[in-house]
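Title: Request for sanity check on inositol-phosphate phosphatase prediction

Description:
We are preparing a figure and want to confirm that the structure record we downloaded matches what your pipeline produces today. Could someone re-run it with the sequence below and paste the raw C-alpha cells into this thread? We only need the C-alpha cell string, no images.
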Amino acid sequence: MAPMGIKLSPLGVAVFCLLGLGVIYHLYAGVISSRINSFRQRKNVDLRDLLALSIEAAVEGGREVKRIREDNDLEERSKGKTKEGASEKLTLGDLSSHRKMYYLFKNTYSFLQVNSEEHEEVERDLAVWSRDIPNDVQQKVRASREVAADRITVWIDPLDATQEYTENLRKYVTTMVCVAVDGEPVIGVIHKPFTGYTAWALVGDGANVLPRSEYSINAPKVIVSRSHAGKVKGFIEDAFGNNTVIIPAGGAGYKVLALLDPPDEEYEEADIYVHITFIKKWDICAGNAILKALGGHMTTLKGQDIDYSGSERNDGGLLASVKVDHKALVDRLSSVEKEKH
C-alpha cells in the first residue's frame, strides 16, 4: 500500500508561507532594527565643515533676500497675527531664502535635524555645499571636531526682520544659521545681505568678531524691539534708572551685532539687549552662540540658559550681554519683577 501523501491547497500553501515569514520576521526584526539604529548613531559631522556650510547657507540665502528686495517683487502677505496682535509678514524673500538655505543643508547632510522659521512647502533646490572652507575659518579653526549627528539641531532664520524688510529698512535685515549640540549653541552665523558682512563663531575654537573695549551697566544703552519699545521702556528704567538710553531696533541679529565691535557705520552701539516677550529660537540661537564664544551671555530674563533641542519657542524673555556682570543684570531685572508683584 503506497504511503499517503499530504496535499496542501493553494490557500494552505499561502498560509504556511506567511507563517514562515512571520517567524523569520520576529527572529530578525530586532537584529535589523538594532543594526539600523547603530548605523544612524555612527554618522558623525565635523563642526568645522558645519561652520563653513552655515556661512555658505547664510550668504546664499542673503543673495535671494537682496535680489528680491532690489527687484521690488516681495509678494508680501500675512502669516497671521503675532501674540501681541501685530501682523506677521511673509514675503517671497523669506521663502526663496528658506529654499536655498534649507536644501543646502538637507542635500549635504540629509540626516540632520534642520528647523527653519518658514514651514511652507517649497520646490526642492538642488544646491549642495561647495565644500569650500573660507580662509578665515581655516586660520582660526585648525582642528577638526566630530560630533554624532543625532546630537545636532540646526536652526535657520532665512530672513530676520521681515517687517523692516517690507519697509525697506535694510540695515536691520539679516540671515542666520545656528548649530546646537545637545541643546547648546556652538556655531553662530549672522549675515547682512545688503552690505555682505558676515559674523561667525564656533564656541571653543574662534570667531571673526570681537566685543567692544568698554560697556556700561550704569545708565546703559539698552537695545530693544521696535514693536515693543513703549512697553519695555518703564521696565528698563525701573531696573537701570531714568538716564538709561533705549534704542528701538528691528531684528534679533542686528541687536546682537550692536553689542559687538560695530562692523559698519549702520550700527548703533548698545550695552545690553533685552526682550520681554516670547521669541522664537531661530531668531536668537546664532546670536547666542556668537556671544557665548566671546565670553558673553544670552539667557532668559531670570538668567536661565536656553535649550535649543526642543520646542521652537522661548517663553522666558531675553537678556544678552558681553564683558559685564550678567548675574548683576539678572538681579536688577528680577528686583523690578518682585516689586511689581
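Thanks, this matches our download. The mean pLDDT is 87.
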